Amino acid sequence: MAKSLFDKIWDAHVVKTAPGGLDIVYIDRHLIHEVTSPQAFDELEARQLPLYRPNRILATADHNVPTRNQHLPIEEPLSRSQVDKLTANCEKYGVELYGLGHARQGIVHVIGPELGLTLPGATIVCGDSHTSTHGAFGAVAFGIGTSQVAQVMATQCLLLSRPKRMRITVDGELRRGVTAKDLILYIISQLGTGGATGYFVEYAGSAVRGLSMEGRMTVCNMSIEMGARGGLIAPDATTFAYVEGRAFAPKGVVWEQAVAYWKTLYSDDDTVFDAEHHFNARDIAPMITYGTNPGMGIALNGNIPSEVAASESESFDKSLAYMGFQRGESLLGKEINYVFIGSCTNSRIEDLRAVAAYVQGKQKAKHVEAIIVPGSKQVEQQAISEGLDKILAEAGFELREPGCSACLAMNEDKIPAGAYCVATSNRNFEGRQGPGSRTLLASPLVAAITAVQGRIVDITQYLN
Amino acid sequence: MEKFQTLHSSAVPLPLENIDTDQIIPARFLKATTRKGFGENLFRDWRCNADGTPKPDFVLNDARYSGQILLAGKNFGCGSSREHAAWALYDAGFRVVISSYFADIFRGNALNTGLLPLQVTDAELSSLFALVEQDADTQFIVNLPEQTLHVPATNQTIHFDIDPYKKECLINGYDDIDFLVSQKPAIEAYEQRRTWAW
Predict the structure, then answer these.
(1) At what angle do helices A349-359 and A377-385 cross, to 10 degrees?
(2) Does the domain at residues B6-193 carry the CATH identifier 3.40.50.1220?
(3) For position A78, which CATH number holds?
(4) For the segment A33-52, what is each residue's pLDDT rounded down to a tens digit?
(5) ipTM
(6) Rounded to a whole number, what is the distance in Å from the CA of B173 to chain A's nearest CA?
(7) What is the domain extent for residue A399?
């Protein structure tokens, strides 16, 4: 019988089906960080359980770490205590930790792929909803809660119901200035913030296959923003070329065997999906969000909707009031105070290169504060070796040290109340970047152009 | 995990859609390393001004409304996977959230916390909001073994679905970890037969 990519991977990881129909699913890779792991380690402690497979876990500190002076002790006591707790737990249980100062430290969803830990056909979990990022490699990857983090620590397994399958096909060629970020913001704006709840999404079509691995990661990363359990893309030559030679990737004969298996990971021709959506790449323009969930997105030169369903009216108006916008208006010309380029969505070397290529020889607007937070130490080092740090500094952008930073503002990197920030991150929820902050999500290219212009512009007129 | 069987309570209405976990518990309050105390910051930025004083128009500050049931608009708990959102609701005294659908990760986290995510239809949810709007003291009886939500005032009974395994877990106070640990021999056998683990 024809099988989807998702089902091929899921079936290969079912230890057994429990009475009642839930599957016991084996987890190949477990990524942990300082915020959602301490209570899970406590759970093991309280139940006197050992960590079952320490070599399948990798830890890093990313969510609340400062992005300046990482060589100094963390000033904020609660953040320091969480990071210290992670260090102590990893030592006690024998978990590999790439903590602050380590050459491999970074945002958990950036370092997994760059180290070759993220592989096609694998099951990958982390106590973080953006774990869907790893699906870009043809892995089944999804975010879990802390109780489940403890379950994986104790047994390397989770008890799960099989989600429904959705395929989103985007065919055609993306227009100039339209990036992977615009593609996913467009899809979410069409399906809505809960439009894929209950589903695991496969992205397909020529526009998706044409994306780089960085672009595919951006797309899969935001699957959760339409409620999907995860998102994935069939592995292909682009995938194998990215993975080959990375630190933890298979080598030699094992690599050959792995690739032979990975080439079988695609949805069979006759696969029937529970839901299908088709989009044309030519219909996608550079995007921006105007509201307080990622589904509230429009083309840069479009208008905020005037009409919404009656049931959504109260939430919609609350959202616009928070943002200081009106129904039906255009965002063009709106002054922006901050530009944040970073997060597990858009902080990879390709993103930094795109920003540097645009801002080279230009200056950010005087009233804009522009910060760039690389996704990892490796991205930071690569940027420096390519001279991007100098280009960015000359344009008035501040290149920080790696972490989640102003995406969720657990550290000092906060947007003040009432200020507008064009951000390359993934969530524009109320207060996400700090109490009262107003976030407009966009691509790194849109963010770079906004920083230089100091206001929202139709970027198609400003492309180099 | 505490057992859950039945609950007789009034409800607190929050008729907004797409309430994300950043609103339920903002990220800056996720720095505790235990499960306790998150209730203090439940809906912090909707409940309090920047200086910590209460916002009088928010429902949790409205003396008319109380109870262990939160009645919320559809797509409740979207966004971040933070289980702290379920812990915060539980810590603040809630035992049931009623909505017309829940984000997947939140649903799982709630069940693992002993908080019942009770899903009704859009039409049923509208009728429940209307009842509470008319009378803030409207009582509800949640019966998990029977899978019913009963409103004595109107004699209305709504049947709800729940995964049978998760239902047994809630009723008995079990969690998945107990079951999974009991499956160790099967897990070890799986590891043995798997030939392609890189």
Answers:
(1) 40
(2) no
(3) 3.30.499.10
(4) 999 999 999 999 999 999 99
(5) 0.95
(6) 14
(7) 287-461
